[in-house]
Amino acid sequence: MKKTLLLCLTLLLSITLAACGTSDDSSTDNNATNDSDTSENANDNNQDTNTDDENTDDANTNDNNDASENDAVDLTSTSLSVEDAISAFQEKFPDTSVSSIQLDEERGELVYDIDGFDDSTEYSAEINQTGEIIAEEQEQQDADDRYEELMLDDYITAEEALSTASEASETEGITARAWSLEFENGSPIYEINFEDMGSQEVDVYIDAESGEQLHVEVDD
After folding, report:
1. In the predicted structure, residue 85 carries a pLDDT above the cut 60
2. Predicted pLDDT of residue 161
3. pTM of the predicted model, to two decimals?
4. What mean pLDDT do residues 201-215 have?
5. Which of 43, 44, 173, 194 has the most other CB atoms within 10 Å of its CB?
6. Does the pLDDT at position 80 exceed 90?
7. Where are the beta strands (DSSP E) in 83-200?
8. To the nearest whole number, what is the mean pLDDT of the chain?
9. Is residue 212 over pLDDT 90?
């Protein structure tokens, strides 16, 4: 009787241990499977996130490139004419003659830079598109300084000079960034500056009296 009871207890213990072992193995397998699924999901999420980041970076790059291209100002579309800019200059500095004019972009805005003179002093001023003088300077002339007065009524307009300069083959596909009018070797000359977003720069020189293209300088 005792042997039979002992045998039954031994058999019951064996069954219990076997069940526990199976349960542990199953639990281990389930944990391994869950860990594998979690790792795969994490990798998938990382890949999706990286793809989204790359797409965002590409979109930002394209937007920046588009913005750079769109930032180019139109030199022919100004709210303040050359004549009005000169009037603002001469109102600030009465009885002066104008020796040079430049239109250029500063901080996204077109600004006139005008130089002038009288019998003893030279003047300069920067004028924005509202006609406001945003910077000015004046100093005494040196004894050997020589100035010549621009006579706009005798010259082609800046718009005409820009149009002629744009016909030069060297300026194809490049944006005009600035123009200036001043005397060079005794003649009034327009200099039209073209520049792309890379490193190419082209300057076209136009005779202000005849409207003839004089020469082109290319700086790669």
Report:
1. yes
2. 97
3. 0.68
4. 96
5. 194
6. yes
7. 97-106, 109-117, 121-127, 133-140, 175-184, 187-195
8. 79
9. yes
**Of 77, 99, 79, 103, residue with least CA distance to 90:** 99
Query: What is the amino acid identity at position 156?
Result: I
Angle at 106 (CA atoms; ends 102, 109), nearest 5 degrees: 95
Give the C-alpha separation, 149 to 116, whole Å: 8
Alpha helix segments (H runs only) across the chain: 2-70, 82-92, 158-166
Query: Using CA atoms, how far apart are residues 122 and 100, in angstroms rounded to an integer?
Result: 11
Tokens of 121: 């002093």
Please provide the DSSP assignment of 49-102 as one string: HHHHHHHHHHHHHHHHHHHHHHT---TT--SS-HHHHHHHHHHHSTT-EEEEEE
Query: Quick check: 119 and 103 in contact, CB under 8 A?
Result: no
The dihedral built from the CA positions of residue 149, 82, 205 and 192, taken in this order, carries a sign that is: positive
**What is the per-residue pLDDT for 32?**
45
The DSSP call for residue 150 is -
Phi-psi region of 163 (alpha: psi -120 to 50; beta: other; left: phi over 0): alpha
Distance CA 211, CA 192 (A): 13
Residues 114-147: tens digit of each pLDDT: 999 999 999 999 999 999 999 999 999 988 888 9
Distance CA 212, CA 220 (A): 24
pLDDT for 196: 81
Enter the tokens of residue 46.
């990382």
Which residue type sits at 106? E
CA distance 164 to 159: 9
Distance between CA atoms of residues 96 and 150, nearest Å: 11
